[in-house]
Amino acid sequence: AGVMKPDGTRYGESWWKYKDHGQKPHSFDVGCPADPTWKRRLHEIAVDAVALGFNGLYVDQLGKQRPLYCCASNHDHPIGTWVFGSDRVSLMDSLRAECVAKKPDFVFETEGYCSSCAINLGLAYILNGVGRRFDDDEWLDAWPELSFLTNPDYITSDRFASPIRTRHEVNAAAAVGYRLDLEVRYATDRQVFERCEHVDYAEYSTVVDPPWDFSPPYSEEEFRARDLKAERAYIRAVNLFRLKYRDVLLRGRFQDELGFSVRTEARHYTAKRWVARDGKECGVLIWNGEGGPEHFTVICGDGRLVEASEPEAGTVDPNRPLSPETLRLYRFKIED
To answer: Rounded to whole angstroms, how far apart are CA atoms 166 and 159?
Structure first.
């Protein structure tokens, strides 16, 4: 099933999870999108997912893999063919079609940006963390705004391999329209995710790739200083906030910094605009990255302000200062 090189060997990847008990890396072949066995197995998994009541299927790396030259003689392509091109699109389309035929609202997902695959996807899963937005030399995921303007129909998750997220990271994801991502892989992760416990770093000592909060440049001292219950509560507040205003923040068309202006003395802030699909409403989301409260006045040329709202405070006076590390949505009715 693997992609075969001209010398008869196969392209592969090695993955290593634990360092104890003499475990060694596990090697896997890179499957060819035109191999009948692999295609049949993926379709079997898709059918099982629907039958078990799931509402989505995620196939790792399929949208991310670079083209490879395959010389296998038993695949559905001539010997010596570049694969992970149109064959990848056909495979994803057939998987999605089979799932949707059985469950119309089924979502098919993969990892990576591949513009030729956009029509086949319900969600694209990218592999870069949210970074530290207001550092001078470390910008949020290398300008994600370009991704949303280029592929506006993508629903995109950020990735930070950790069972908990800081307030800063939650704001960074929301500020540009990323869905928030958590990862719970190990038993110790559940203690952090479910019970907000400050676990001992030593519990990850045998893990090859521990959660990012438990590896450099992060320190155990920094982790223990965090209020995990407050972080969990803030994750919930922002998720519910975005769901409440989903017509703009989750389903609206991303406009970046177009169509509005901001008056403020703050230097560190992010302001982005989305327009609802019906074109009757828009929203400007402000994230205050300063160390103290700041005043913001948002002017939308074609809109009338109808509400200002925050995840924790609800509807607020738009003229009151915005607290540090806080989001505020300014909703406008678009006038004809």
So the answer is: 13
**Distance, CA of 277 to CA of 284 (rounded, Å):** 15
137 vs 131, 134, 140, 160, CA distance in Å? 10, 9, 10, 19
- Per DSSP, helices labelled H in the chain are 36-51, 86-102, 144-150, 167-176, 187-195, 220-225, 228-244, 246-249
Tokens of 290: 């300063």
How do strand 269-275 and strand 260-263 relate by DSSP bridges?
unpaired
Residues 6+ apart with CB under 8 A from 268: 134, 288, 289, 290
Question: What number of other Cβ atoms are within 10 A of residue 189's Cβ?
Answer: 22
Interatomic CA distance for residues 220 and 213, integer angstroms: 8
Q: How far is it, in rounded angstroms, from Cα 244 to Cα 151?
A: 24
Burial of 324 per CB tally in 10 Å (0-12, 13-18, 19+): middle
Residue 117 confidence (pLDDT): 54
Percent of the chain with pLDDT over 90: 49
**Strands 123-125 and 107-111, bridge-based pairing:** parallel
* DSSP run (H or E) holding 329: strand 326-334
Contacts of 134 (CB under 8 A, 6+ apart): 268, 289
Looking at the whole model, is its pTM more than 0.90? no
Segments in the chain below pLDDT 70: 21, 112-143, 151, 153-154
Name the nearest CA neighbour of 289 among 326, 255, 244, 253. 326
* Residue of 132, 181, 176 whose CA lies nearest to 158: 181
